[in-house]
Specification:
The complex is a heterodimer of chains A (181) and B (271). Chain A has 181 residues and is an all-alpha fold. Helix content of chain A is 69%, strand content 0%. Chain A folds into two domains: 89 residues, Orthogonal Bundle (Rna Polymerase Sigma Factor, Chain: A), CATH 1.10.1740; 85 residues, Orthogonal Bundle (Arc Repressor Mutant, subunit A). Chain A is globular. Chain B starts with 5 loop residues before the first helix and ends with a helix. Classes of the chains: A mainly alpha (181), B alpha+beta (271).
Chain lengths: 181, 271
């Protein structure tokens, strides 16, 4: 097989799940994310020769983000706004209990659903910073590179995302300002 | 009222400050209840977010992307070769490149491919863990992430995982569940590395899988940390075993597990 293709599969495709996760969090929808990720991987492949010694995962996520913005702009031109998919058919399997204790599991799942909704409700620039930090484990410098803003902006977005999440969490779950559980 | 140190407390939490600033922050937190609460909240939020079921690219999407890449490669090759102005029918083109790809994946997935790579590694590895070995570790890690490749023996109990290795690998590494510390033992696997049956202990940390490979250390042992293809690899040696942990998690997280395992090895030796 083609040498470029081989290197690409070895270096970039391991991050496909991360790319998909990130696209899902950006768009809050799965159908759209498939297209965004496919487009991002193709663009990555075309630009692969130009990639020199930088962090492959951060590079791929930056491309995913660009593709997402492009798709979003096209939709806005067409006046199309996707509805959030609450009961995604593809997620069916993930919702099947794997622990023997259904009650605890139900509570945990409820909390997980609420948390996912609250994350989805955060402003996009705050959500992406938080997801890159907590889920993809990127440091401030990587987040700044991917989202194309200074590190100080990353810090304030993270701080606002976290404060916003806490406030909504308290309102949503406990109804009164107490500690996050 | 907001403490002026909020952003610095957050940076401390995210591991973005140096040792001096960290010590400063630890002193500050002793007297500032607001920052103390903030750090607790950040910790709880991180745990909650990392416990969410991570979305994964479906096999259908993966296949679709590989096909799109096939087409892309075919177009590239076509343009480069200037063979003919009439492109081969898309379906045909797709099928031929698809076969190559499947062969490649299959070869890499199979023991034969690994054995060849291991033989290569044997000759090229002097004296440290060289590039082929690291590539092989990453390939083994990636392969493990494919459906049904991750775990041979599924258990969160080290009394189940450790004895299993006796019959399936050439070494008996340290195994423990560190759920309390955030590293859940999810099982074990046998893999073929460096001419021997290596034992692999699989841990889950948030959405990340960490494969801890271990095999009998030879002349060529290494205790360094490195990054290959975006994966982090931490290697260390304990007694006569070579360990390498591979993951897409951050260095701090990887080092956390490394420290736990090293402590365990040290305790094992004493007993």
């Amino acid at each position: 097989m083609d040498e470029k293709r081989r290197r690409f599969e070895a270096q970039v495709l391991p991050h496909l799940d991360a790319a998909y996760r990130f696209a899902r969090w950006l768009s809050n929808s799965s159908g759209e994310s498939d297209d965004v990720v496919q487009e991002a991987v193709l663009r990555a492949f075309r630009g692969f020769d130009a990639l020199r010694g930088s962090d492959v995962k951060a590079w791929l996520l930056a491309i995913v983000r660009n593709c997402h913005s492009t798709a979003r702009r096209q939709q806005q031109r067409r006046g199309f706004v996707p509805l959030p998919e609450e009961h995604d058919a593809e997620d069916g399997d993930a919702m099947v209990a794997t622990t023997p204790d259904p009650e605890t599991d139900t509570i945990r799942r409820d909390h997980a659903c609420i948390l996912e909704r609250l994350l989805a409700e955060l402003p996009e620039e705050q959500r992406e910073a938080l997801i890159l930090r907590e889920v993809e484990d990127m440091d401030y410098r990587d987040i700044a590179t991917i989202t194309n803003v200074p590190i100080g902006t990353v810090m304030s977005r993270l701080s606002r995302a976290r404060a916003g999440l806490k406030t909504r969490w308290l309102l949503g779950i406990e109804g009164a300002p107490r500690a996050v559980r | 009222m907001q403490c002026a140190e909020r952003l610095r407390a957050q940076a401390y939490f995210d591991g973005e400050v140096d040792a001096l600033a960290a010590a400063d922050m630890e002193r500050h937190v002793e007297t500032c209840a607001e920052c103390r609460t903030l750090l607790q909240d950040l910790g709880r939020m991180r745990t909650a977010i990392r416990e969410l079921t991570p979305a994964r690219a479906t096999p259908a999407l993966r296949a679709r992307i590989l096909r799109a890449l096939d087409d892309e490669v075919a177009v590239d090759a076509h343009e480069a070769a200037h063979e003919t102005k009439i492109a081969a029918p898309r379906a045909l083109r797709g099928r031929s490149t698809w076969r190559t790809r499947t062969f490649w994946t299959g070869a890499f997935g199979g023991v034969a491919g690994t054995a060849v790579a291991a033989t290569l590694a044997f000759f090229l590895l002097l004296p440290g863990l060289g590039q082929p070995m690291l590539d092989e570790l990453v390939a083994a890690h990636v392969r493990s992430l494919m459906p049904t490749h991750l775990i041979d023996v599924e258990s969160t109990d080290h009394h189940t995982v450790k004895p299993w290795f006796a019959g399936h690998a050439d070494v008996s590494p340290v195994v423990a569940d560190f759920t309390q510390q955030g590293y859940r033992l999810i099982g074990g696997r046998a893999d073929y590395l460096d001419h021997q049956r290596a034992a692999v202990v699989v841990y889950q940390h948030g959405p990340h899988i960490i494969n801890v490979f271990s095999w009998a250390a030879g002349q060529r042992s290494a205790t360094k940390n490195t990054t290959r293809s975006g994966y982090r690899i931490a290697c260390w040696r304990a007694a006569d075993l070579q360990y390498c942990a591979v993951s897409d998690t951050g260095w701090d997280e990887l080092r956390g597990l490394l420290r736990l395992l090293q402590t365990l090895s040290a305790d094992d030796l004493k007993n």
